[in-house]
TrEMBL record:
Any single Pfam family the record assigns to this protein: DUF3140
Organism: Gangjinia marincola
InterPro entries linked: DUF3140 (IPR021487)
Entry protein name: DUF3140 domain-containing protein
Domain of life: Bacteria
Classification of source organism: Bacteria, Pseudomonadati, Bacteroidota, Flavobacteriia, Flavobacteriales
Length: 112
């Protein structure tokens, strides 16, 4: 397991996760979700895989999280730090941008 404070990353993860499990699950079924981001060897994008892992986390009780879950939470928090910086936000057409789609894959709806 990586070196991080679980309570600190849990708090930030909860603050940035503004999609319900149902919303995230429905989003992950869309063409936009499946095509947003860098594709891996198996054809799935990195963000879509992350979204599936985040959905799994959202469906668990905190005390049932595995070390792999905690590592994914830490990765998500790092992703939020990088991509929610104002310099990353598109200046127009946000709703149809890859930036918006990618953030939704990670459980954050930037238009909420």
């Amino acid at each position: 397991m990586a070196d991080y404070d679980k309570e600190e990353i849990w708090k930030e993860f909860q603050e940035k996760q503004n999609m319900t499990a149902s919303e995230l699950g429905n989003w992950l079924e869309t063409k936009e979700s499946k095509n947003a981001g860098k594709e891996m060897d198996n054809g799935e994008t990195i963000g879509h895989r992350a979204g599936r892992a985040i959905l799994s986390i959202k469906e668990k009780d905190k005390e049932d999280l595995t070390s792999a879950n905690w590592d994914r939470i830490n990765d998500a928090v790092g992703y939020y730090h990088q991509n929610l910086h104002p310099s990353q936000k598109p200046s127009n057409n946000i709703e149809h941008s890859n930036w918006y789609y990618a953030l939704k894959n990670w459980g954050h709806d930037a238009l909420k």
